[in-house]
Design brief:
397 residues, alpha/beta, TIM Barrel, Arc Repressor Mutant, subunit A, 2 domains, 3-stranded antiparallel sheet, 23% strand, globular, binds iron/sulfur cluster
């Protein structure tokens, strides 16, 4: 179904749901104080890799990317990462030069750990710095201080990483524009290859959400958050970075996150681990969330079991939903947007044939525009549209 004629990329995502402590804003699938489960979790991941490689029909012939996300994947020993990657190489043909990313948190890696990860096969490291300010890090409930953040980035470079990404957060309660600018400058001074900048989202159920609800903390005003985003657009532009996705900037095209581009281009991926999502042949599956139950299900899986033995949800998407998602995700790509030609090759119709009114509206509101590329027109967000991206995406819901 519908994976079409365009050359599609395929990625493997491995979720590592362990953290030393839960940050105050975090609602991700992760567990603190359960590190003793990690060895059996690692074995469950390897079991799932093997199982899925044998049981899912029509898997793409080779994987272009592998991504260890979390949680805190840097809590896993490098030898376990190597074991998992060896299994991935054995079960799936990894493309030569495949991007292999791992999310690392400052305060979880000792000297020498980065080179062990490199030796294990990881070639891109994404460091969860979030802020260089002691008070902001405390407010977020991060386990690290500013010095550890700086040291983690320097150590990654010293030990040989050639593709380093830094995550920062903005629009924090009490954060001034000047303070945000200092965070940006501090990050740039470390010469990262890639930056991901996220506006704080107060998720119900988190400690930060409660503190704001009780009036202990004041949330950032929308206007200030917009100024912070625009400041980042300008400063990173001056520093030579390309803004290629709503929240992401790269020093060169080669450093754009290839794995995440698979999601944004609505291409297939296999998600392994607790709570992981997969998207293959128009079917989305979601795995069991708890680490214990995921491990139990994978231990019970045998060759007689169906594909997705740990799945708790399976949803077959209809054509229109896939087209909507292709637009919503693709429009996030601020540099290239959605190619008319790629859309046509995939679905056999043009973008404006499926969404005539929606496109008319977002263009009239100056949220998006058609731009010429070597393969023809692409529908791309305007600079102002990047700031109001959600308003454009909502047209395709
Ligand atoms: S390190 Fe990341 S995943 Fe872990 S608790 Fe903090 S925000 Fe959540």
């Amino acid at each position: 179904m519908l994976i079409g004629k365009i050359a599609s990329m395929f990625g493997i995502y491995l979720h590592i749901p362990f953290c030393l402590r839960r940050c105050k804003y975090c609602d991700f699938i992760t567990y603190a104080g359960k590190e003793e489960l990690m060895p059996s979790y690692k074995s469950a991941l390897i079991r799932e890799l093997r199982h899925q490689a044998r049981k899912i029909h029509g898997l793409p012939a080779r994987a272009d990317t592998v991504f260890f996300g979390g949680g805190t994947p840097s809590l896993m020993r490098a030898e376990w990462i190597r074991e998992i990657l060896d299994c991935a190489r054995g079960e799936f043909r990894l493309a030569s030069g495949a991007e292999i990313s791992l999310e690392a948190n400052p305060g979880t890696l000792a000297p020498g750990d980065f080179s062990s990860l490199l030796e294990a096969g990881v070639n891109r490291i994404s460091i969860g710095v979030q802020s260089f300010d002691e008070g902001e890090l405390a407010l977020l409930g991060r386990i690290h201080g500013p010095d550890q953040a700086v040291e983690a980035v320097r150590e990654a470079r010293r030990e040989g990483f050639r593709n380093i990404s830094i995550d920062l957060m903005f629009s924090l309660p009490g954060q001034s524009l000047a303070r945000w600018k200092e965070n940006l400058y501090e990050a740039l001074s470390l010469q990262p290859d890639h930056l991901s900048l996220y506006s704080l989202i107060l998720e119900p159920g988190t400690r930060l959400f409660e503190e704001v609800r009780q009036g202990v903390l004041q949330p950032a005003e929308d206007e200030l958050a917009a100024e912070m985003y625009e400041l980042a657009q300008d400063e990173l532009d001056k520093a030579g970075f390309t803004h290629y996705e709503i929240s992401n900037w790269a020093r060169e095209e080669a450093f754009e996150a290839r794995h995440n581009k698979i999601y944004w281009k609505n291409q297939p991926y296999l998600g392994l681990g607790a709570g992981a999502h997969s998207y293959l042949s128009g079917i989305r599956t979601v795995n069991e969330k708890t680490a214990e139950e995921y491990i139990r299900k994978m231990q019970a899986a045998n060759l007689g079991s169906e594909a997705f033995p740990a799945a708790v949800e399976k949803l077959s998407l209809d054509l229109y939903t896939i087209q909507q998602e292709t637009m919503m995700l693709g429009m996030r790509l601020t540099k290239e947007g959605v190619s008319e030609r790629a859309f046509h090759e995939r679905f056999g119709v043009g973008i404006a044939d499926v969404f005539p009114k929606e496109i008319e509206r977002i263009i009239a509101r100056k949220l998006a525009e058609w731009r010429d590329f070597s393969d023809g027109p692409h529908l791309v967000l305007t600079k102002g549209g990047a700031l109001l991206g959600n308003q454009a995406f909502q047209e395709f819901v």
